Amino acid sequence: MTTKLFGEPVRRREDARLIVGRGRYLDDIGHTALAAAFVRSPHAHARITGIDVDGALDVEGLVAIYTYEDLTGPMAEPLPVLIPHPQLTEPRTGYPLAREVVRHVGEPVVMVVATDRYVAEDAAERIVVTYDELPVVVGVDAAYEARAAVHDDVPDNVAARHHQETGDVEPALAASPRTLSFTQYIERSASMPMEGRGVHARWDADDRSLRVYSSTQASTSVRAAIAAKLDLSLDTVEVIAPDVGGGFGVKIVHPWPEELLVPMAAIALGQEVKWAEDRREHFISSAHERQQRQDVTVGFDDEGRVTALDVHVLHDNGAYTPYGIIVPIITATQLVGPYVIPVYRVRVDSVYTNTVIVTPYRGAGRPQACYAMERTMDRIADELGLDRAVVRERNLIQPDQFPYDHHLTFQDGRPVIYDSGDYPGLLDKLRTLADWSSADVLRDEAAARGKLLGIGMAMYVEGTGPGPYEGGHVQVLGSGKVLVSTGLTSQGQGHETAFAQIVASELGVPIEDVEVTTGDTRRFAYAVGTFASRAAVMSGNAIALAARGVREKALRIAADVLEADPGDLEIDEGLVQVRGTPGASIPLRTVAVLSNPLRYAFDEAAKQATQFTTHDDSKPPVAEGDAPGLEHRDYYSPIRSTFASGAHAAVVEIDPETWEIDVVRYAVVHDCGNVVNPMIVEGQVHGGVAQGVAGALYERMAYDADGQLQNASYMDFLMPYASEVPDVDIDHQQTPSPLNPLGIKGAGEAGVIPGTAAIASAIEDAVGRRITSMPISPTELYDLMRSEDSETTATAARRAGTGVMA
Amino acid sequence: MKPAPFRYADPGTLDEALAVLSAEGAGAKVLAGGQSLLPLLSMRLAAPATLVDINGVPGLDAVEVTGDGVTVGALVRHNALLHDDAAARVQPLLARATANVAHPAIRNRGTTVGSIAHADPSGEMTSVLALTDGSVTVATPSGPSTVEWRDLFVGPLETSISGPAVVTSAFFPALPPRSGTAFAEIARRKGDYAVCGAGVVVTLDEDQRVAAVRASYVSVGLTPEVHDLTDAVIGSPVEKADWTAAGELARTLVDPDGDIHASADYRRLLVGVLTGRTLAEAAAEAAAAVTRE
């Protein structure tokens, strides 16, 4: 029997190629292409009064200059609102090139095309754009105050008022034995893939067809958008995501202005055109996430059980809303986490600011949600003098309560019904893994070394694998090679390996025979994209179904040849055989040859399938309802999302002289249902934790009041190095999803979600002062410790009272 | 992020380099390790008309160690200085400071003299040049001259050197007898520019009493400064010296700026803490030196 590769820690097949430099990223394509560069707004909010290109015209190598005036047809209209929502009452999007008004630093105003990027930048530098500056709105509080408006026709700056409630929260709060209210903030960070965005377009004038390479997370939808915006028939456009050097969400947004303008120029000029984003462009013109103000009121009883929860979120959506209100909806609906919340009301005001747009970044609203809920749990524990783990335990949904309906509507328009989970199991494992009960011992030991030690935890539930669908295609060639394709894209997650494992296991072939292609509309034209921890759930299941279809057909053909019942056959190591009858077998590759009745023997193997070799003349060569070839295409479309879960704990040590914060221990218990490849899942968790630590302690978008990003480089935007990321202890729990054939849940984003909440809790535990704004840096912690306004926690006061050092 | 057009010259001798610099005038810039200059070019924050690459000039890559001090040639990479044991014996601050310069990849290309000529107040080696009372040698068409550190640093990224000139070496005087040193930094991430760095020299008398205390800081102030902290601890027996008091004194002497990574107050706090910590370490080393005598 073939080793079942599903569930095994198979080493990633793509790594050798990528590590030795054989990857083919966007900028590796089209060395002779013309290059595009952009003149971008230096102002956060301004009216364009003039564009003078004269100075650029004598730059040797300049090919073309485009402004808004050069855009025609659909290109002259605003960019699409990708995900409309009834509560997004004031959606606004920009134009491919700014029309009259710019609303954030970095908005594209002019596109320059030249013989190479150097020349394009030389010409761009000589173009003079004049502006009348307008009042600038930065930050959610300023947006809500609305002394100035980002969009003239949205004077209150509110793009959407999102509102969900599961009962009458005000009476429930009034009837609660205890209540507490607090306000907290969380700052912006961003995806920051190593490879920025990029587009390469080639127009074949004779064939009248367009090939576009884009560093995207959604090639099929980029294709549709390009066709629509450039007035092309869909069949004449192909879009390919080559190797993509990371996405983390930012590349799900589409069409980016550049994704439309570069193909437009390629068609107009009849030459290949390429744009590869540089890092500064990425900072000021792609997308960010995470800034929110959260006002929380919670009702609870003396045991710490939540009776009602009322949350108001001010969500910063940046200057435009091309991705709708997906991020705040996720915050609103994932906030309840693994807990029973008898009455819940959430109101989100999503507001415009003169900053880069806000769209999903790994976690996509969930780190904020987890921060709100978990810090609420911490507050309850502090108020009642209870162990933070105990308060959580008392509120958890129990294993016998699944499926658990929160009576909320999720980001996919479908109900938030948790499919399966064991949250008490997670908490128990975490307490053991993190040695939760020894915290006081660790604290004393650190105090003896002059350090302040604290521990914190956070739990989460993550809706993963939303629809509407993905598809898979599996084909066995006469060579024995198995081709697998799916339309969603890969950004380094290990899809080549995980999908190959699924096919090898389902079909009974060596994994070496399996070749996986993703994100290429020539191979698979129907897809949604890679986001929301959905690739394994959606394409994994679709590919499994496709492989099962191939297996069924292979067994049917082989049964004919072997004169056996298909039910008696098995496929192992690429050989179809009668179970228990050695020698009664046929290679799968031969079955593939026979599946395609031939007239012409183009190679040696093909002879077996030609018309004078096959002898059964009692039926047509291709049976009615059948098709030539050993291949199958199938789709997976779930009724609703599947819900993964986890629990993290962080131990921090703080130097009370310098206020440096060191995460000395980080524990993760993770449940994503059945695991295709535990090594890949652990890698995803590690990367997620790195971004969680980043968001808690290092990264932020430092906008000044004028809307200028002060740290738009890797020198000042502090993405942590390996030296800043703690070692991670991982324990797994597997609660299969009943919703899909493979029983899996998504794992891509999980690692990042609880970082901010858990680390805030640990710092608060260490210093005994309330932490209400994240991320936090040593200089800010120093200010907090000196401030007369900072609140001492009840826990710290109790510890001081009992003589235990805080 | 592509540099504006520039001409490139790679002279084979110092005279050729000076000739190119003379001919090109103010638009010419010397390229050594390029670790600061090239990013500035790519971001178009600098757009020199000509880069004069001195990497092909012979004789600039030596570390010369004598009893008086260490002379570091213009093409000596940070990493070479970091691992030069002879230099470290004569002036231990060299290895201690270069260990804090960025990351190995940058230390492998970046030059110590180049970073001094760049005059970045967040550079380690500008601070060490000041603390050791060092100087640089500058080649000009009219012959070489020596510029003391005090006369060298004019402002952030600005030196007193003008006209056609190549800084050919930096001289770091030897550590005085009965002295010890220490160097420490606090950075947000390992290898980043320091939020605050401190280098110190403690000198004792023959009875192990504190005779002199000098400190210089990184990322504090616009140009390197040396602060004499002797008054806080003068005459104190080394084992009883109140290094915290010296740190407190240092806090009153510095005038740091705030930025997005640290407030001025926080930098001042770190000046105090790092001063206290490094002085204790340096004093122990000085005491050991006295004992050896």
From TrEMBL, chain A:
<dbReference type="GO" id="GO:0005506">
    <property type="term" value="F:iron ion binding"/>
</dbReference>
<dbReference type="InterPro" id="IPR036856">
    <property type="entry name" value="Ald_Oxase/Xan_DH_a/b_sf"/>
</dbReference>
<dbReference type="Pfam" id="PF01315">
    <property type="entry name" value="Ald_Xan_dh_C"/>
</dbReference>
<keyword id="KW-0560">Oxidoreductase</keyword>
<dbReference type="InterPro" id="IPR000674">
    <property type="entry name" value="Ald_Oxase/Xan_DH_a/b"/>
</dbReference>
<keyword id="KW-0500">Molybdenum</keyword>
<protein>
    <submittedName>
        <fullName>Molybdopterin-dependent oxidoreductase</fullName>
    </submittedName>
</protein>
<dbReference type="InterPro" id="IPR016208">
    <property type="entry name" value="Ald_Oxase/xanthine_DH-like"/>
</dbReference>
<feature type="domain" description="Aldehyde oxidase/xanthine dehydrogenase a/b hammerhead">
    <location>
        <begin position="20"/>
        <end position="135"/>
    </location>
</feature>
<dbReference type="InterPro" id="IPR037165">
    <property type="entry name" value="AldOxase/xan_DH_Mopterin-bd_sf"/>
</dbReference>
<dbReference type="Pfam" id="PF02738">
    <property type="entry name" value="MoCoBD_1"/>
</dbReference>
<dbReference type="InterPro" id="IPR046867">
    <property type="entry name" value="AldOxase/xan_DH_MoCoBD2"/>
</dbReference>
<dbReference type="InterPro" id="IPR008274">
    <property type="entry name" value="AldOxase/xan_DH_MoCoBD1"/>
</dbReference>
<feature type="region of interest" description="Disordered">
    <location>
        <begin position="611"/>
        <end position="631"/>
    </location>
</feature>
<dbReference type="Pfam" id="PF20256">
    <property type="entry name" value="MoCoBD_2"/>
</dbReference>
<dbReference type="GO" id="GO:0016491">
    <property type="term" value="F:oxidoreductase activity"/>
</dbReference>
Automatic annotation (TrEMBL), chain B:
<dbReference type="InterPro" id="IPR036318">
    <property type="entry name" value="FAD-bd_PCMH-like_sf"/>
</dbReference>
<feature type="domain" description="FAD-binding PCMH-type">
    <location>
        <begin position="1"/>
        <end position="177"/>
    </location>
</feature>
<protein>
    <submittedName>
        <fullName>Xanthine dehydrogenase family protein subunit M</fullName>
    </submittedName>
</protein>
<keyword id="KW-0274">FAD</keyword>
<dbReference type="InterPro" id="IPR036683">
    <property type="entry name" value="CO_DH_flav_C_dom_sf"/>
</dbReference>
<dbReference type="InterPro" id="IPR016166">
    <property type="entry name" value="FAD-bd_PCMH"/>
</dbReference>
<dbReference type="Pfam" id="PF03450">
    <property type="entry name" value="CO_deh_flav_C"/>
</dbReference>
<dbReference type="GO" id="GO:0071949">
    <property type="term" value="F:FAD binding"/>
</dbReference>
<dbReference type="InterPro" id="IPR016167">
    <property type="entry name" value="FAD-bd_PCMH_sub1"/>
</dbReference>
<keyword id="KW-0285">Flavoprotein</keyword>
<dbReference type="InterPro" id="IPR016169">
    <property type="entry name" value="FAD-bd_PCMH_sub2"/>
</dbReference>
<keyword id="KW-0560">Oxidoreductase</keyword>
<dbReference type="GO" id="GO:0016491">
    <property type="term" value="F:oxidoreductase activity"/>
</dbReference>
<dbReference type="InterPro" id="IPR002346">
    <property type="entry name" value="Mopterin_DH_FAD-bd"/>
</dbReference>
<dbReference type="Pfam" id="PF00941">
    <property type="entry name" value="FAD_binding_5"/>
</dbReference>
<dbReference type="InterPro" id="IPR005107">
    <property type="entry name" value="CO_DH_flav_C"/>
</dbReference>
<dbReference type="InterPro" id="IPR051312">
    <property type="entry name" value="Diverse_Substr_Oxidored"/>
</dbReference>
